[in-house]
Design goal:
Blueprint lengths: L1 E13 L2 E11 L2 E12 L1 H14 L5 E7 L2 H8 L2 H7 L13 H13 L1 E6 L7 H22 L2
Parallel strand pairs: 1-4, 4-5
Antiparallel strand pairs: 1-2, 2-3
Helix pairs in contact: 1-4, 3-4
């Protein structure tokens, strides 16, 4: 299996609001950047989309380290929250609906394709790849706002 590192970040202008996500795929020093956005979303949805799209971009099963500044994403996977929510019909322990079940389900499907380790880092702390992913994500929501302003 190939060893790949995926750096991710999501951003929103307002929460909810226009949002974007950014990804850097790193395989043996060769890098590829991906980004996208949505006009009416939340920061957590963009954080999830970044990881999903990064994993989807891999053409074969890989050993992946996902580097994220999202505790929501990191804890949802490493603490088993997402799997528990799914097993409980997308309900949390308190019986309230889990948020973003569509994206959590998509992420769990992608994780099943690969050997994934999640590494949480502090955001906006000078980590070069995290800063670049943030710039990609912010660039996406700015494009959305500019397009809306020009309508």
């Amino acid at each position: 299996m190939k060893d790949v590192t995926i750096y991710t970040d999501g951003a929103c202008s307002g929460n909810p609001g226009a949002g974007g996500w950014g990804v850097i795929l790193d395989y043996k020093g060769s890098r590829k950047e991906l980004s996208g956005g949505a006009p009416a979303t939340t920061n957590n949805r963009m954080e999830l989309m970044a990881v999903i799209e990064g994993l989807r971009a891999l053409k074969e099963p890989c050993r992946v380290t996902v580097v994220t500044d999202s505790q929501y994403v990191a804890n949802g996977i490493t603490l088993g929250w997402a799997k528990a929510w799914k097993a409980n019909g997308w309900r949390k322990k308190d019986k309230k609906p889990a948020l973003n079940p569509d994206l959590w389900d998509a992420l769990l499907q992608q994780i099943d394709r690969h050997e994934v380790t999640i590494r949480w880092i502090r955001g906006h702390d000078g980590h070069p790849e995290n800063e670049r992913c943030d710039a990609l994500a912010v660039g996406e929501w700015k494009k959305i706002l500019a397009a809306e302003a020009n309508k």
